[in-house]
């Protein structure tokens, strides 16, 4: 069994709960555009003029050619800024001497990078020329300016909202302050800007209605005539450009419920949605991005307002979170940060996906020194179309800004998988789709000598102290099947098939929606369970717990492997195993007692003598077989010892005992060929 560490995401989104509209009515997912990596951008953008609020025009810069880009990154400024060990990563000097700096927002500003940041109580707006990484301009801006107060669209202007004075301030090409525009008809409470920077929409704290300040004419007027804010707390979630709608979250104080609807800015039209929580919404032209909460998961949905079916981008890198989203260019940027106390390193990883193809086009991993005083966190990122760069910021002891060159060959991911699924996979999957996924499950089973069961088939699994709930989520099921297929490939041919030894049955793998304890000896919930009951050998995995799904696969498979070893007489010598533990140690031999234990003695990265560290976590101290399964799962999922667990001598020794005993039991492991679980032993301690 694998303990479930999942904590519900919860309704962390303020003011967004219930929606009453079908996303398909405002959505589709066809994002046009060329390849975004590998130096394939070779043409020029058509020069495009955009009207400013005062009638002047901004100009969209031409895309640089490959020759121009190479000339730029080979220049002296980029050579000095290059991050050691990387040909595609550069560190930007913000030219800020103070330590108490914080970055609020980064944005493309023509062919430059704009950054709004604060130093103490003071606010600043700066531009950096990406041709030479030098600071072009810096000006003071209103205090208490945050990311939601900064509006840009990639052209050479930016608009800030000064809350203290109720004014919009527009800055031009060199951050010269061109126009100050006072808001006079109301007090903005929740607000946003149209993509073309011509309409400032806000909810009026005085009457609850929605207003627009037209930056071209200076006129203010009430909009969204179909909306009534009386008795409601209103939040503007997003703006759809074509056709023009506002996504509005309204808490009705009388009914005590929240509803999210899309209101026409000029007309009476209201578009309803289904029973999903919208977390975020952003529109550009007829394309949009929505972050949707459903089934304890947050999904990134991309589509068009044409009414076609949207698509869901669903990467399986469970530690990733969305760092940035560029709806106009059809790119989604994800990142993750991890630290290892044993190796004194921390790793930042980034992936950029094309939301049209659903493929991961670019990938970056960068390692920094680490101790307990210099944690590095990923803050945000933005795409610079002119150069095909991705800029991202980190925070820690001091904020830093990095420029990632997506054109460099080392940025190409080489990942051919498609991570985009139709919206119907989540929203009421058809019987035909379910049957198609059942066939995929059968094929995966046949290829690996096991059976794979999904949807309502889960309820047929034998039960003892746990019950297994079926999942009707076709999206999670499809993703989980893809991951399972790749993980089962790691085992030698026929190894899993040979677990059918007459004691139980062929190994049956059930992908469940939840694993619930029904007995006082059971955990409340579990990520996975393995057992043999009524001559039925099976394992059950909770696919809603994607954060540990891959690890759980190997954890539970090892339980089945060990049970097979015991049946065939290849059991582990507990005397040899106990020698891997500190003198006098004894396991809890009780799941509930272990769950309530907070004793980190001898646990990895805890204080004390490193030579006595013998356990990956406290759960490893519950039973000897759980200890072995935990060691095995990390040997299978951390084959380069990035987490540093196998730098501890006792944990390495445990893996060696496991490996030797498996070699004695399985003919597929000839003792000569390097098995997948042995690879981590090849890395230096």
TrEMBL record:
Residues 1-27 form the signal peptide. Residues 37-68 are annotated as: Disordered. Keywords: Signal. This is WD40 repeat domain-containing protein. It comes from Coprococcus hominis.
